[in-house]
Design a protein that fits this description.
Radius of gyration: 12 Å
Helix content: 10-25%
Distance between the termini: 23 Å
Order of helices and strands: EEEEHHE
Strand order of the largest sheet: 1-2-3-4-5
Largest sheet: 5 strands, antiparallel
């Protein structure tokens, strides 16, 4: 089966955050997938690349995420998906 490269995202591990374990971003689709330390997995829609750069460069990834993304973008709970992000 052929894979659609637009659906592939690189997973970024977050070091030193008490909230966010990993995230993946697809710039073509403008979707952000966030894996939380609590085990939650959510997809955030219509997130501009500039916000991903800001989160990446922020002193506190969790604080930046809470302030700029969490309440400003629609999200979908993905907890029904197996733990793809734990390996």
């Amino acid at each position: 089966m052929a894979r659609n490269s637009a659906l592939l995202c690189e997973v970024t591990k977050v070091e030193g955050s008490s909230q966010i374990k990993r995230y993946a971003y697809n710039p073509d689709l403008r979707i952000l997938i966030v894996g939380f330390m609590t085990g939650g997995l959510y997809l955030y829609k219509d997130v501009p690349f500039e916000k991903i750069e800001g989160m990446r460069d922020a002193e506190s990834v969790g604080s930046y995420f809470s302030r700029e993304i969490k309440d400003n973008h629609r999200c979908v709970n993905l907890n029904f998906i197996p733990d793809w992000y734990t390996t």
